[in-house]
């Protein structure tokens, strides 16, 4: 990012900000902690899956930092804002958000693979290792990611009635 970009909108109220962010899909959203009709940290929690959120505040108390971390805030900008701090804070927020999203996706993929292994183990009385090797071999033979093979297995068994629907 490196300080490139444009401001796609500005909102003074939480409700307007939520609508604006969901409509414009910005690379990063900056919220003040105190807004006339709410709290920027609460907004961050609502948008944590949509885009990285940076808080703009003059406060640095432990309670604020703990609430912000729990809400998924990716970085802080402290008042008074120094222009030299803006680009690094935004770049860091975008990078952390991308890393967190990638980790969540890997965890979700791993859970699907584990479910597929469990299905193979139950259906064919396989060991965990043997079930994993079957999935891996099917992925290699089809030149597809293992998670795609696992999804296909779970879907086919669900359609066939072999697995209860989740």
| SS summary, helix count | 6
Mean pLDDT: 91
Tally of structural domains? 2
For the biggest sheet, the summary is: 3 strands, parallel
> What percent of residues adopt helix (DSSP H or I)?
55-70%
CATH topology of the largest domain: Rossmann fold
Question: Nutshell version of this structure?
Answer:
The chain is mainly alpha-helical and 166 residues long.
Explained architecture:
This protein is mainly α. The protein folds into two domains: 14-81, Response regulator (Rossmann fold, 3-Layer(aba) Sandwich); 105-160, Orthogonal Bundle (Arc Repressor Mutant, subunit A), CATH 1.10.10. Helices cover 61% and strands 10% of the residues. The chain has six helices and five strands. It has helices spanning 14-24, 40-47, 62-71, 83-124, 128-142, 146-160; strands spanning 29-32, 34-35, 38-39, 53-57, 75-78. The strands form two sheets. Strands 1-4-5 form a three-stranded parallel β-sheet, sandwiched between helices. It has a two-stranded antiparallel ribbon with strand order 2-3. A hairpin with a 2-residue loop joins strand 2 and strand 3. 19% of the residues are buried.
Write the layout of secondary structure elements.
Blueprint: H1 14-24, E1 29-32, E2 34-35, E3 38-39, H2 40-47, E4 53-57, H3 62-71, E5 75-78, H4 83-124, H5 128-142, H6 146-160
Helix pairs in contact: 1-2, 2-3, 4-5, 4-6, 5-6
Overview features:
two-stranded antiparallel sheet; three-stranded parallel beta sheet; Arc Repressor Mutant, subunit A; 61% helix; mainly alpha; 166 residues; single chain; 2 domains; elongated; Rossmann fold
């Amino acid at each position: 990012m490196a300080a490139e970009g444009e401001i796609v909108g500005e909102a003074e109220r939480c409700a307007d900000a939520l609508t604006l962010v969901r409509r414009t899909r910005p690379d990063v959203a900056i919220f003040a902690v105190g807004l006339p009709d709410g709290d920027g940290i609460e907004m961050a929690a609502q948008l944590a899956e949509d885009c990285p959120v940076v808080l703009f505040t003059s406060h640095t108390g432990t309670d604020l930092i703990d609430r912000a971390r729990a809400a998924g805030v990716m970085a802080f900008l402290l008042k008074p804002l120094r222009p030299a701090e803006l680009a690094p804070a935004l770049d860091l927020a975008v990078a952390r958000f991308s890393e967190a999203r990638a980790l969540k996706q890997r965890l979700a993929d791993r859970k699907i693979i584990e479910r597929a292994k469990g299905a193979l183990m139950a259906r064919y009385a396989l060991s965990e290792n043997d079930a994993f090797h079957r999935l891996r071999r099917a992925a290699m033979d089809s030149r597809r990611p293992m998670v795609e093979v696992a999804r296909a297995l779970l879907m086919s068994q669900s359609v066939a009635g072999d697995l209860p629907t989740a």
